[in-house]
Design brief:
The chain is mostly beta strands. The chain has one domain. 0% of the residues lie in helices and 18% in strands.
Length: 168
C-alpha cells in the first residue's frame, strides 16, 4: 500500500480527442480522430479509494468521412473535443459536433444510402472514436480512448469504482 491515499467522491476525467478534418487540396486528405487524454498519472506509489467516484479517460475523436465535407465528432471529456471541420458546401456546413463531458459528438452526417459518407462519431468516456464511413473515398480511423490511469503498477486500488478506458 502506498503512503499517499486518494479518496475520490467525484469525477477525474481526461480531455476528449478532436474530430478528424476533411480537407480539399492536392492531394485531398481525411484525418483520423485524435486520441482521448488520460485521466490520472501515477508517478509515485498511491492508494486510491474510488468507491463512489469516477475515473474516466477521454473519448477518442471521430475520423473524417470519405468526402470533403465530413468532419468527425469530438470525443467526450472534462473538456469535450472539438468537432472536425470539413469543406462547407451549401446547404452543408461540414462540421462535426463537439463532445461533452458525458457523450461524444456526432460526426457530420451525409446520406450514406446515396453513396455519400459521414464523419465518425466521437467516443464516449473512455471509448474510442468511430471511423468515418466510406463514400467515394475511404474514411479515416477514429482516435484511441484515453487511459483512466497511467502508472497503474504504482496504484493500490482500495475500491475500483467506475473506471473507463485503458491502463498502462
Amino acid at each position: 500500500m502506498g503512503s499517499l491515499t486518494l479518496t475520490n467522491h467525484g469525477r477525474i476525467q481526461g480531455k476528449g480527442g478532436k474530430g478528424g478534418w476533411a480537407a480539399t487540396g492536392s492531394p485531398p486528405h481525411w484525418d483520423a480522430g485524435s486520441p482521448g487524454g488520460g485521466a490520472f498519472l501515477a508517478e509515485h506509489e498511491i492508494s486510491i479509494d474510488n468507491l463512489d467516484g469516477e475515473i474516466w479517460g477521454g473519448g477518442g475523436g471521430g475520423g473524417a468521412g470519405g468526402l470533403f465535407f465530413d468532419g468527425g465528432g469530438g470525443g467526450a471529456g472534462t473538456e469535450g473535443g472539438e468537432g472536425g471541420v470539413g469543406f462547407s458546401y451549401a446547404p452543408y456546413n461540414g462540421y462535426g459536433d463537439p463532445g461533452t463531458t458525458d457523450a461524444g459528438g456526432l460526426g457530420f452526417p451525409q446520406n450514406v444510402g446515396l453513396g455519400y459518407s459521414s464523419g465518425g462519431n466521437g467516443g464516449g468516456p473512455g471509448l474510442p472514436g468511430a471511423a468515418g464511413a466510406d463514400g467515394d473515398n475511404p474514411g479515416a480511423a477514429g482516435g484511441a480512448a484515453g487511459k483512466y490511469v497511467s502508472g497503474n503498477e504504482l496504484v493500490t486500488w482500495i475500491n475500483a469504482g467506475d473506471r473507463r478506458g485503458g491502463v498502462s
